[in-house]
Amino acid sequence: MRFTVWYSAAQGFYWSAFCSSLNFASVFLLSKSFRNSQIGIVLAVANILAVFLQPLIAGLADRSEKITINGIIIAMAGTAGAFAAARCFLSHVSPVLAALFILELTVLFSLQPFLNSLGMRIINQGIEINFGFSRGFGSLSYAVLSVLLGILVQQFGTDSLSVISVGLYSALCFVIFFFSKRQFALKSGTVQAESFQGQLDSKSANPESVLSFLSHNKRFAALMVAVSLTFCSHSMINNYFIQITEHVGGTSKEMGIATGIAAAIELPAMMLCDFLVRKIRCSSILKFSLVFFTVKTVITLMATSVRMLYAAQVLQFCSYALFIPASIYYVNEVIKEEDLAKGQAFMTAATTFGGVTASLFGGLLLDSEGVGTMLLVGVIAAALGAAIGFYATQRVEVKECAPDKTQL
User: Fold this and answer.
1) pLDDT in tens, 15-32
2) Cβ(395)–Cβ(283) under 8 Å?
3) Which residues span the domain enclosing 234?
4) Are 44 and 169 in contact (CB under 8 A)?
């Protein structure tokens, strides 16, 4: 129990930092006179750099006998905290602030797979922890802090976000250091960062291998197009949610509540999905979630009040929260065993590409045409994604899709 409590605290502090630094990024940068297109560039560059940083750090760890996963997490959290602290003093210099934000978010994105890997390695050492509960506690922490930050920003201004982020990164360092020092120290061993490059080994990452994989899995390749379009729409809403909230008459307080609703509803939905895949084809669940990404975007576009925005956020249950576990099960069934890592990596790459596209074009659309046009483009992207997804998704039987109980 004490290890589950510790690991839950680590997940809680990480996702809380994720909330204060990323979820409120637009709120913070808009207050510093950034245009929406500039915010999009900051978010896109951070995502792209993280794709390369994850496998780089993993490679360094694999070549060193002295580096542990614990040490990697502490170093990365400390570095992100230092960038957040610098934001407190240099927020008035726009180019410097943009650079600091890009660097902080790059490290923040790259930290996640190492934190997940730490949990797996604790389990592999024979120490029982409830990984699902710990990850769920992270989502719950995200939800609660989102609501609190919306209120705090109204009371104390956006500069409070940098201070809170520093405190959360520091707390994460403390938790990892205190428990790892007294209880265990995990050698990093072979660390696989959960990114496109990190999951493809040197042999399979060459262009010929990638093209060969796609040519032998044409429908799966089409599904990746669908996923990219869907997550372009999804990320447009997430990245520019403060602009959408203000468009219907809300403030950062209402934005925090709406984000909290979506985050809080993810845990029961993801837990339900484990049950559903034993009763319903995971390919059907995947199609269902793609449709509801579109429905959610349509309701967000049609929203004329904060309450309608809240209603749209409830649909996170039927869209994102079901898509994530269902997509993992689906890949495990339709891709050959020797190509599973590539399959999961392409799924990650598709969502990342959609997020980068949303960051760049969403900001440009906001500056040139406004919230309505951006959301209309999001609806079109989500609808195309659902249509292509229906064609590309292969039928998977329930008995094949059900997860192996020995792996849960």
Assistant:
1) 999 999 988 999 999 989
2) yes
3) 1-184+212-392
4) no
DSSP 132-149: HHHHHHHHHHHHHHHHHH
- For residue 22, what is the DSSP state? I
What confidence tens digit (pLDDT) does each residue in 202-217 have? Answer: 444 555 566 777 777 7
Residue 386 maps to a domain: yes
pLDDT value for 278: 75
The CA-atom distances, in angstroms, between 139 and each of 19, 313, 368 are 10, 15, 34
Task: For tokens 């429905």, name the residue.
Answer: 295
How far apart, in whole angstroms, are the C-alpha atoms of residue 105 and residue 29? 13
CA 286 to chain centre: 18
- Per-residue pLDDT of 212-240, as tens digits, reads 777 777 888 899 999 999 999 999 999 89
Residue 169 belongs to some domain of the structure:
yes
> For tokens 């205190």, what's the residue?
178
Task: Report whether 335 contacts 342 (CB < 8 A).
Answer: yes
**Facing residues of 68 across strands?**
187
